[in-house]
Design goal:
about 110 residues, single chain, 3 helices, alpha+beta
């Protein structure tokens, strides 16, 4: 086990019985995973579910930007299904092959 040093965030908020930053992040991430699981079990609408997953990650885990892509096994290309920006979700139906842009580099 590793040792966690608990330090107060400010004088008005001593962490008596509180959590260190690592544990706070773990609690936040577990809450985000729980929220994602609820989204996944709520709807069968694929695109709506993808948008909601990214929104939950933004709201619960502090994600500022993200995208969800799925590899098409027939074409070998990544299909971008939705992109999340601070302004909200942006639908995107682009495909990227290996070596095409930053996304395509992920395939290589």
């Amino acid at each position: 086990m590793h040792e966690h040093v608990i330090t107060p965030l400010n004088e008005d908020c001593p962490p008596k019985g509180g959590f260190c930053r690592t544990h706070e992040l773990n609690i936040q991430l577990l809450a985000a995973l729980y929220a994602v699981s609820r989204v996944l079990s709520r709807s069968l609408d694929y695109n709506e579910t993808l948008r909601d997953v990214l929104r939950v990650l933004h709201d619960e885990a502090g994600m500022t930007r993200g995208l969800l892509s799925v590899l098409d096994p027939d074409s070998g290309k990544l299909n971008i299904h939705t992109i999340y920006t601070p302004e909200g979700p942006v639908p995107d139906d682009n495909e990227y092959g290996p070596g095409e842009g930053v996304i395509g580099l992920v395939l290589e």
